[in-house]
Amino acid sequence: FATFTLSVRENGFTEAARDDLYNTIAIWMIVGERQAKCVRQKYYEAILRQDMSFFDSVSTGDVTTRISSDINLFQEGISEKVGLIIQYVATFITGFVIGFTKGWKLTLVLCSVFPLLAITGGLMGKLLAASTLQGQ
């Protein structure tokens, strides 16, 4: 095993990439908060426009629970998940480029595993989606 040392330039690049990643996730969290606020306001306005008969069939607790749980799921989907997807895609592309520049033969061998990983990831996503729907 070889010991790697980072030069000052590489260390600065690493710190800049880390800071950029943090800023990207923070911005998406802010976007998620703003979108959740907008959806809450629209939902509240829609509730106020309902006839009185609507509130006879739906309890107040159901309305408030629905607002809080659905909006939180929506917010998590926008803020956390989108930021993580961007992070993972950027990491994959960067790793792929570095892999081809440092050791293209090993990278080509690892590319043969990608279809298996994609199929496994797709099946896992479907299973998680099905179990999430059962939990709601």
TrEMBL record:
Keywords: Membrane, Transmembrane, Transmembrane helix. It is found in: Membrane. It comes from the Eukaryota. One of its GO terms (molecular function) is ATP binding. PROSITE patterns: ABC_TM1F. InterPro entries: ABC1_TM_dom, ABC1_TM_sf, Type_1_exporter. The keyword Membrane applies. Its main location: membrane. Residues 27-136 form the ABC transmembrane type-1 domain. One of its GO terms (cellular component) is plasma membrane. The keyword Transmembrane helix applies. It is a multi-pass membrane protein. The chain crosses the membrane at residues 82-100, 106-129. Pfam families: ABC_membrane. PANTHER family: ABC TRANSPORTER B FAMILY (PTHR24222), MYCOBACTIN IMPORT ATP-BINDING_PERMEASE PROTEIN IRTB (PTHR24222:SF76). This is 17569_t:CDS:1. It comes from Acaulospora morrowiae.
